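Propose amino acids for all 238 sites.
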């Protein structure tokens, strides 16, 4: 909660006629960003007899400087708390079926862009890190390498201490807390690994909040005029 429907209903009751929507997926995919946008417009269509508010959506932002900096700072802060030094960094993103990308989904490209910007900002060298994909299900092939397989592989090769970051998840959820933090941790231990640290997602990190605000203000520039620091008003029309 709140659901999309309840949020839209609340905005309509307040007389809002311009909406900026923020899909919380930095990398675009039809499975996430498009699905969220579809849900928004489906909700708006319930009131199509009445005037539907004008809508803008914040685009995907895989290389946005504010987003990359927020990620890097959150990683640096978490690394500073560790009593041990990671032997390998794993950058894990939610996977999608490979055929989606073959059909034109640009998700894999966005993932690569984010990864390269992040490792450049953090100064990680080739061989210190690997980008992987998680959360697959069903019989078909998904984007590889798979996070769980890679963790087991490096544990069997002698890597004992791993640091995992999940840049595609704006907030911690089942896929991070349970899948990585419990399931993958157990598999890593069983394969011979010792320590696996999952860096918290951006959640409400101040750098991330600032980055999201900047993205919203950029999308609303000339369309939504800030009347005060905490209130937006529609831009005057001719």
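Proposal:
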């Amino acid at each position: 909660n709140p659901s999309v429907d309840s949020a839209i209903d609340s905005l309509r009751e307040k007389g809002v006629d311009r909406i900026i929507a923020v899909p919380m997926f930095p990398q675009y995919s039809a499975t996430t960003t498009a699905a969220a946008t579809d849900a928004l417009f489906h909700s708006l269509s319930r009131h199509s007899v009445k005037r539907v508010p004008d809508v803008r959506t914040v685009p995907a932002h895989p290389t946005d400087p504010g987003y990359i900096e927020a990620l890097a700072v959150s990683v640096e802060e978490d690394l500073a708390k560790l009593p041990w030094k990671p032997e390998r960094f794993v950058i894990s993103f939610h996977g999608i079926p490979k055929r989606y990308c073959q059909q034109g989904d640009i998700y894999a490209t966005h993932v690569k862009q984010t990864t390269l910007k992040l490792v450049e900002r953090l100064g990680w060298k080739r061989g210190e890190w690997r980008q992987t994909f998680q959360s697959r299900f069903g019989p078909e092939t998904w984007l590889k390498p798979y996070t769980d397989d890679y963790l087991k592989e490096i544990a069997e090769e002698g890597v004992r201490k791993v640091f995992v970051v999940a840049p595609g998840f704006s907030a911690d959820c089942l896929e991070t807390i349970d899948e990585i933090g419990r399931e993958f941790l157990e598999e890593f231990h069983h394969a011979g690994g010792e320590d696996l640290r999952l860096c918290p997602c951006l959640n409400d990190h101040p750098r991330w909040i600032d980055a999201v605000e900047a993205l919203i203000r950029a999308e609303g520039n000339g369309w939504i005029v800030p009347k005060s620091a905490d209130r937006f008003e529609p831009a005057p029309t001719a």
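The longest helix spans residues 174-190. The first strand starts at residue 18 and ends at 21.
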